[in-house]
Write a structure and sequence with these properties.
Strand content: 5-15%
Largest sheet: 5 strands, parallel
Shape: globular
Helix content: 40-55%
Structural class: alpha/beta
C-alpha cells in the first residue's frame, strides 16, 4: 500500500459536505484535507448542475493545486454531465448511487488519470450527438475524423472507469490492443491522457 491520496470536499451546502466527509473518513487509503490545502482529488457536491455550481467546479480544478475533480449531484442530465466535464470534472456520480466503496473507487480512478461517467449518461450523450451537432464546423473532415465502433466501445468503458484488463476481457481483445486503441485516439486528437480523451469525445459528440 502506498501513501494515502489526499482529498478535499467542497460543497455549497454544509450538510452535503458533512455527509461526504463522513463517508470517506474511515477509508485508510484517503487522507482528508481542507479545501485550501493541497489535494490530489476534490469532491464537489451539489443538488443541481447550474452556472454557480459549474463555476465552483472550474475554480476547484483550476486552483493552485489543480486536483482531479469528482462531481456528485442529486440530479444530472446528459447535457449537464457534458457541462460538468467541460468545466473540468473527471468523475461524475449521482447522490443516490453513491456509497462509501463506490466513492472511494471513483477517487482512485480519477487520481490515476482516468475518467468515470455513469453508463446511462454516456448513452444520453450519445443520443444527443445524433440529434444535434454542437460542432457543425468540424464534421466532414475526412476518414480520420470521428471514432470507429471499436474505438467507441473501448472509450465508453474507459469512461465507466473500467481497467484495461477488464475492457480487454469483456471485448475479447488483448490488453495491448486496448492500450493501442486508447493511444491512437489520444495521438490523433492531440489529447493528454485517457481522461482528456473521454472528456473531448463527450464534449464534441464523438461518443
Amino acid at each position: 500500500m502506498g501513501n494515502p491520496l489526499s482529498l478535499c470536499v467542497v460543497a455549497l451546502d454544509p450538510l452535503l459536505e458533512a455527509g461526504a466527509v463522513s463517508a470517506l473518513s474511515g477509508n485508510r487509503d484517503i487522507a482528508l484535507v481542507q479545501p485550501e490545502e493541497k489535494a490530489d482529488v476534490a469532491v464537489v457536491i451539489f443538488d443541481r448542475v447550474d452556472r454557480e455550481e459549474l463555476d465552483l467546479v472550474a475554480a476547484t480544478g483550476g486552483g493552485p493545486h489543480r486536483p482531479a475533480v469528482i462531481v456528485i449531484a442529486s440530479h444530472m442530465s446528459a447535457a449537464e454531465a457534458a457541462d460538468a466535464i467541460n468545466a473540468g470534472a473527471r468523475g461524475l456520480l449521482r447522490r443516490h448511487e453513491v456509497d462509501a466503496d463506490r466513492l472511494a473507487r471513483t477517487v482512485r480512478t480519477v487520481a490515476g488519470g482516468d475518467c468515470t461517467v455513469p453508463p446511462d449518461l454516456i448513452d444520453g450523450l450519445l443520443d444527443q450527438s445524433t440529434e444535434t451537432d454542437p460542432y457543425p464546423g468540424v464534421r466532414g473532415r475526412g476518414p480520420d475524423w470521428g471514432l470507429d465502433e471499436r474505438e467507441r466501445a473501448v472509450l465508453r468503458m474507459v469512461a465507466d472507469g473500467r481497467e484495461t484488463d477488464e475492457i480487454a476481457k469483456e471485448l475479447c481483445y488483448s490488453p495491448r490492443t486496448v492500450t493501442t486503441v486508447v493511444r491512437d485516439i489520444t495521438q490523433r486528437f492531440r489529447l493528454r491522457n485517457r481522461a482528456h480523451a473521454v472528456a473531448y469525445a463527450l464534449r464534441t459528440g464523438l461518443l
